[in-house]
Design goal:
The chain is α/β, with parallel strands linked by helices and about 270 residues long. The protein has eleven helices and seven strands.
Length: about 270
């Protein structure tokens, strides 16, 4: 099993589809467990879970955190639901994005909470000083969640080694598009209107000329992929959180179906 976290689909600002990871990693598709973390939504994660809950045991999202005070820039955080109450809490946070303070004072049981990408409130601080990780972990796990440090292909070995002394580390990708498909990705972004989107900084569908230009500048970051061997070595611990999938029956195969929760809003057309 090769667990590939933090993948973006066309439902937010990505273009990863079936077969892309198999092609990029050189590993048969049935050995890969991709975890889709679209911005502020779970449609791709739920669609895949409903299609094959054993291969896609998690429901995950890169949720938005509401800006604080006069700050207009929103931030992101990586959440993975591994129990029914986690799905319920994830849907609640997507439907009503919290501030960081509100998040830390809410119930996050059933969730794995990651330190996040460059737009996370924790990203820069823990790379500047990994000794901050125990304090962040304590704050997160006080809510009932399980904390992990999210590492990326561009992180150096020194940071990863230091982080592993204080918390679980998950090697992520934040993969939006494969390099061979980048031209098609740019066209997709340009076709999305951004009129009206600017009035809502929490809108998950990103597009327009300005955003396409920004993504073009970030091309190496958007298309970088961890090595399959690194994913196997670093992400094996996540298996313990999806062991429940083997206990499912055909009559109750969707482990979150009884949690009285549903994805907020409607999927984009």
């Amino acid at each position: 099993m090769l667990i590939m976290p933090h993948v973006h689909s066309q439902y937010s600002d990505g273009l990863i589809t079936d077969g892309d990871l198999e092609k990029a990693l050189g590993v048969p598709a049935d050995e890969i467990v991709p975890i889709f973390m679209d911005h502020g939504m779970v449609y791709e994660a739920v669609r895949r879970h409903l299609g094959d809950f054993r291969r896609h045991p998690f429901i995950a999202s890169e949720i938005y955190l509401r800006p604080r005070g006069g700050d207009r820039k929103h931030s992101h955080l990586s959440l993975i639901a591994y129990r029914p109450e986690g799905v319920r809490n994830l849907f609640r946070l997507i439907g009503n994005p919290p501030t960081l303070e509100e998040l830390l004072s809410s119930d996050l049981s059933g969730l794995l909470v990651g330190s996040g990408c460059m737009s996370s409130p924790f990203y820069g601080g823990i790379r500047e000083d990994p000794e901050r990780i125990p304090l962040i972990r304590e704050e997160i796990e006080r809510t009932g969640a399980v904390f992990f440090v999210e590492a990326f292909p561009w992180d150096n070995r020194q940071f990863i080694s230091a982080a592993r002394k204080h918390a679980r580390v998950l090697l992520s990708s934040d993969l939006h598009v494969l390099d061979d498909d980048f031209d098609a990705y740019q066209v997709m972004l340009l076709m999305r209107p951004d009129e009206g989107r600017r009035s809502s900084p929490l809108h998950p569908l990103k597009g327009g000329k300005g955003f396409a230009g920004k993504m073009a500048g970030a091309r190496p970051y958007l298309t970088r992929l961890p090595a399959a061997g690194q994913l196997r070595e670093m992400n094996g611990w996540l298996v313990e959180f999806c062991a429940f999938r083997e206990r499912q029956t055909t009559s109750s195969r969707h482990w979150w179906s009884g949690c009285a929760a549903r994805p907020p809003g409607n999927p984009p057309g």
